[in-house]
Amino acid sequence: MSTHSPAQLPDLPAFFTAHYYETITSTNDVAKDKARAGAPAGNLIVAGEQRAGRGRTGREWTSKPGNLYMSLLLRPPGHAGEVAQISFLAAQALSDAILQIAPNLEPQHKWPNDVLIGGAKISGILLESAARAGGGVEWLVLGMGVNVAHHPQDAGQSTTSLHTLGIRKSTPHSLLAALAPRLLHWLDVWQQQGFAPLRMAWLQRAQKLNEQIRVRVGGEEFVATFRDLDGNGNLIVELPDGSMRSIAAGEIFLPHN
Ligand code: BT5
């Protein structure tokens, strides 16, 4: 099922051991197999296309050739709540990389795990991990899909790609070359200094900060004002009665959609 072809990949910092597959089911699945087989952190699975690309809770991730599909194996210290901060790290690294390639664009972060440009989704991030007996995680797979050449029209939400935004020279290869060092940078900052610097950086590009959003938590849905991200990565919203509420898992929307 695979063709390992390093020529398809750019030079990456020493931390990464990259494997390229022309076509694959899901880069996350292959990275998880490697994790279970004991592969070290830094293993990176990159695919030209995915036949079964996934989002969260089993949603589909459109994965035709021309975009970046990758999964990075990590073995981070910390409990499950802490390692979930890696989705903010990935969003931050990606928006840095996009700005490096296209300084005129304005990537924005949407809690918890999206990067948007002009309100349209250009990337999705999927974390999967295995718990370690006694706490912590045994491994964590950071999956990232980034629309470079095209984006789905039928995703049920607004989407975009670098080519659509006029960055026509970008390729999955050039994007990965910019992204990998930024991932390494933020992994280092996060491991040395914790979440605080990452939280500050993420908030600077947060979409809808101090504006109204619609929040869905389980079966519940309500309108609130997005006020902050707390020190764990929880979304802090202000309810119409002025009280604050902390949200650990859920989704946000603009009030009108
Ligand atoms: C995500 O899920 O946004 C995480 C997507 C992670 C994809 C990467 S690709 C490499 C690795 N291998 C995998 O199998 N997955 C990861 P979620 O927040 O659940 O959003 C999914 C929703 O995004 C879908 O229901 C669509 O509305 C929309 N969508 C699907 N494909 C898209 C695309 N290519 N671009 C933008 N939006 C898309």
Uncertain stretches: none
Bound molecules: biotinyl-5-AMP
What summary fits the major beta sheet?
A: 7 strands, mixed
| Total number of beta strands | 12
Helix content: 10-25%
Question: What are the secondary-structure elements, in order, as H or E?
Answer: EHEEHHEEEEHHEEEEE
For the largest sheet, list the strands in their spatial order: 1-2-3-7-6-5-4
Query: Taking all residues together, what is the mean pLDDT?
Result: 94
Superfamily at the CATH H level of the largest domain? Answer: Bira Bifunctional Protein, Domain 2
Reported by name, the CATH topology of the largest domain is: BirA Bifunctional Protein, domain 2
Radius of gyration: 18 Å
In CATH, the architecture of the largest domain is 2-Layer Sandwich
Looking at the chains present, what oligomeric state does this protein adopt? single chain
β-strand percent reads 25-35%
List the total number of helices: 5
Topology:
Blueprint: E1 17-24, H1 27-36, E2 43-50, E3 68-74, H2 80-83, H3 86-101, E4 107-110, E5 114-117, E6 120-131, E7 137-146, H4 172-193, H5 196-204, E8 212-217, E9 220-229, E10 235-238, E11 244-247, E12 251-253
Parallel strand pairs: 1-2
Antiparallel strand pairs: 2-3, 3-7, 4-5, 5-6, 6-7, 8-9, 8-12, 9-10, 10-11
The structure holds biotinyl-5-AMP.
Biotinyl-5-AMP binds near residues 56, 59, 62 and 126.
